[in-house]
From TrEMBL, chains A, B, C:
Reactions catalysed according to its record: Ca(2+)(in) = Ca(2+)(out)
Its membrane topology: Multi-pass membrane protein
Residues reported to bind ATP: 185, 313
Assigned protein family: Belongs to the P2X receptor family.
Superkingdom, natural source: Eukaryota
Listed Gene3D superfamilies: atp-gated p2x4 ion channel (1.10.287.940), atp-gated p2x4 ion channel domain (2.60.490.10)
Function summary: ATP-gated nonselective transmembrane cation channel permeable to potassium, sodium and calcium. Activation by extracellular ATP induces a variety of cellular responses, such as excitatory postsynaptic responses in sensory neurons, neuromuscular junctions (NMJ) formation, hearing, perception of taste and peristalsis. In the inner ear, regulates sound transduction and auditory neurotransmission, outer hair cell electromotility, inner ear gap junctions, and K(+) recycling. Mediates synaptic transmission between neurons and from neurons to smooth muscle. Receptor for ATP that acts as a ligand-gated ion channel.
Biological processes per GO annotation: calcium ion transmembrane transport; response to ATP
GO CC, alphabetical: plasma membrane; postsynapse; receptor complex
Residues with glycosylation annotation: 183
Name of the protein in its database record: P2X purinoceptor
Alphabetical list of InterPro entries matching this protein: P2X2_purnocptor (IPR003045), P2X_extracellular_dom_sf (IPR027309), P2X_purnocptor (IPR001429), P2X_receptor (IPR059116)
Disulfide bond is among the record's keywords: yes
Length: 405, 405, 405
């Protein structure tokens, strides 16, 4: 069969089917190992890949999420009644909302000169020459004037500074923590959309009519067991779920993550797709001086052209709403790809079993002799002999090439 | 060939090439099925995986995005002119920006006592004993003093409360919706960077010089067809594209998602990579009492040491700028991996065709006889016989092992 | 062997092991190519996939991150001392924080009538009829009254408008840039959690006790080489690292990305997992009229019932804290999957070598004759002949089917 014949064969042979020749080894232990490995691979694919991991589904892990928060509650402090307009920040209601639970207020600060706080480095002095005029100490509150003045109503002296006076460390009024905030509620509305499947879901219970829903929302409080579909959360409940002591939180403030988790299977009814909630203190800096959560802001007033401000150091409970979403739906492409991978992996069994067979079982080389055919030896020596015998009863044009069968 | 010979063979045979023996089946239907399945698999890989999904590319799906927004516009309400400084929140211009479209303003609230709103549970009273002193009703506005007082200028009475007075539900002044806001514009600047490829792109049209660009930006308004590269959007256009009625939105407020979508192919010129925009109401709670978007805030004033506030319930149109980015570029690794997977998948065709052949075509067992060679039977029985005959004309050292060829 | 026999064989043969028959080609060049390709594939998998890409690990790329920022510093401007309460926005300390570095302040704006700025289109006039009453020019500042009035203290006239007067363009007082802001520090606390591994890590140095840590944090400044674990950053250092001129930034403002990058390998000690920082100007619109970063806000005052405001155009340096996290840990599943893929890929070598062999080496068709066995020809012609001979010395029930071996 020359080159021409080869090409002819190739063209003619396009519609031929080629299948590998296979040697059957009737060896029970080997067979058991072979089937055992096959069974493991199949089980892995069917149980883990297809049933547990749902590899037949197209998945969407980055849904579009919109969060809307609103805080509500009234608290009484002394003879003053506070509502959440004073307490909740920012008021716009995005996916981060915080409530002030304790305040240290410095009233009526003005641009003036006053004594620096004694804790600031090199602020203590006895005479004016101890204070460098114009110096701005980084940990201090302002610019030194160069004078040494009595520290407010005390007997010692500190350097005078030009700043918002009086300084916060001296003049701040510590208000008691707002323990009533445990009863504040926060409404967390979350709408999620899976663009790949064009499904939109919300976390608010579907009620038959608007009035019923309004009534439900005006009364319900979220509870994992009793009211899992009410999106209104008591701050005290959130702290409990995050395993934090609310009274403790009120002293230092803290950042709590509210995790909304959507696990949706759109092969079943989309309306079964409901969120679960979990809560955890995000800020783990418990042993740090900067632990907790606080920030400072000021309210500015103008009286007869003179600007004054009220400085507020606000300790807050901040809620970070973090939405995780996952949805899957049957799709042909991943099903095919994973099935192909599964089938391909079964072929791996052969590699393992071949190694076992050739190393441990095939002591006499029987199987290897049979499995491995030497192209040269086999072709030229015994078969050519056999051929001589065989050729009596046959008629091959192939012989003209001098190539044995 | 003993163990020693096997080892010797193995060492000598390291540079041997091993290739599976293949049986050719000249069966037209089977060949057609075989080539058909191969064609399907190849088509799937070439068309879908390589051309459509661009599997030869390395991809980057989580680019770094920076959004900068600015709102602009002037609206007249009665004899008052408002600019966006009053309307846009937050002023800093992050990826969420909102404009107030309607306000309910409660002027001059002070810490006082006043009558509770009649809609609050158990607020209606006829005598003082109907009101529990110190009670703070959760849905109410303050702490009850225990007195029953006339409801403002009405004929009935409600419990007196200590709160920010007067209560919002009674005193709020409803302003008309700001329909002119449809002409407000929002500038949305978006810079995106794909770290894997170190390419940075912006959504603002590249103009030959600064002055031309400034001129362009001062006049252009985004329009999908006419001005696709102008980053300035009319609020009315956004509402239209989101298929919402702007007048309706002005009444209830709403949250609209502005989706900026980057699909970049860096195998071609990176400057061809331009964003597309889409708009959709994110908040689907149309039939809810809390539908729409509003929030409350207050402006605080201090007059002669007495604090007062103006409480504003602001209905707003909030824009959430959501950026999706995807970029791909040729890379050797995924090209190799996917080519290998493609070749491997063609092997799957054999599994299918083998099954068809052995089950449907191979009625007489001709092919299975040929394909499957029993290591024992084939080796010991017929071949050994053949061997006896054959051995006449040959001279094998192999025979010493007693193992037939 | 009939259908019955086939079924019987199949049932009995369940525990048989099947292995492909292999032809050995003793061809040195081909063997070298074969082993070379195998070596390349193995090297790729072992070195790149397993060692470099750590394919034996389960990975987590979307950790939960909580960012907490606080700005600190004092700056003197004229005879006024500013602290960060006036400069930092928003005060709450989320993952975006900005500092005002330059201000253009328009004091005492009130709802009045005044002259429009001359740069507004069609604002210049000589007589009242040049101004359309009620017109609201989009690029203007208010509603035209229809009068033509002198432009403040100048000799020319512009249309009168009803607006917040005086207009910003005319009355704004440009304050000098706050170059001292280079010494402002920003504390960036970042806590990261990998839910898949339940490991939480923070970016603050672990000190033996609270007091030592407090002392450390009160003094340290981040420096890539000297203090890599101090979370307090000088603004000047950040600008340097982002390769920006701070003085330049102070004029135009700018948005700088602070990238916190966690690369964690939990197969080693989790406490080795520490973040690296990088800084880059996010806003690349250098040649744009809107380049830099500024926003406007106002402080509102009420004096004797008349509302006034101070409008502030604030140029700021905004820091966007962007956290990237990646963690890996040994896991059985990906190890198995990738090993299987690696083994499967070695099979690809055969496809390449077969092609080389049959095209370039196998000139006489020796190998192809040997590799490809024609089911029909091989079975019926020569073997049947051989069979005739062979059958003498054997006793096959199979013969009853008339099918040769």
């Amino acid at each position: 069969m020359g080159l021409l014949g080869f090409i002819k064969d190739y063209v003619l042979g396009f519609w031929d089917y080629e299948t590998p020749k296979v040697m059957i080894v009737k060896n029970k232990p080997l067979g058991v190992i072979y089937r055992g490995v096959q069974f493991l691979v199949l089980t892995y694919f069917i149980w883990y890949v297809f049933i547990k991991e749902k590899a037949y589904q197209q998945s969407e892990t980055r849904p579009e999420s919109s969060v809307h928060t609103k805080m509500r509650g009234t608290a009484v402090q002394g003879d003053r009644v506070h509502d959440t307009i004073e307490y909740a920040h920012p008021s716009e209601g995005f996916d981060v909302i915080s409530t002030t639970v304790r305040r240290e207020v410095t009233y009526d600060q003005m641009q003036q000169t006053c004594a620096e706080h004694f804790s600031v480095a090199s602020a203590n002095c006895t005479k004016d020459s101890d204070c460098t005029p114009g110096e701005v100490n980084f940990n201090g509150n302002g610019r030194r004037t160069g004078r040494c003045v009595p520290y407010y109503d005390q007997n010692f002296k500190t350097c005078e500074i030009q700043a918002w006076c009086p300084v916060e460390e001296y003049a701040a009024v510590r208000e008691p923590p707002l323990l009533e905030a445990a009863n504040f509620t926060v409404f967390i509305g979350n709408t999620i959309r899976f663009p790949a499947f064009n499904v939109t879901r919300g976390n608010i219970k579907v009620a038959p009519n608007k009035r019923k829903r309004q009534k439900y929302l005006s009364k319900c409080h979220y509870d994992e067991k009793k009211e899992p579909y009410c999106p209104i959360f008591r701050l005290g409940y959130i702290a409990d779920q995050a395993r934090e002591n609310f009274d403790e939180l009120c002293k230092t403030g803290g950042v709590i993550g509210v995790f909304i988790n959507w696990q949706c299977n759109f092969d079943v009814d989309a309306s079964d797709c409901k969120p679960t909630y979990s809560f955890r203190l995000l800020d783990t800096r418990k042993d740090l001086p900067t632990a907790g959560y606080y920030y400072r802001f000021a309210k500015y007033y103008s009286r007869d052209g003179v600007e004054s401000r009220t400085l507020i150091k606000a300790y807050g409970i901040r809620l970070d709403i973090i939405v995780h979403g996952y949805a899957g739906k049957f799709s042909l492409i991943p099903t095919i790809i994973n099935s192909v991978t599964a089938m391909g992996s079964i072929g791996i069994c052969s590699i393992i079993c071949d190694w076992i067979m050739l190393t441990f079982i095939d002591k006499n080389g029987v199987y290897s002799e049979k499995k491995f055919v030497d192209a040269r030896k086999d072709a030229i020596q015994p078969m050519s002999t056999a051929f001589t015998i065989v050729s009596y009863g046959s008629n091959h044009s192939d012989l003209s090439d001098g190539v044995p069968l």
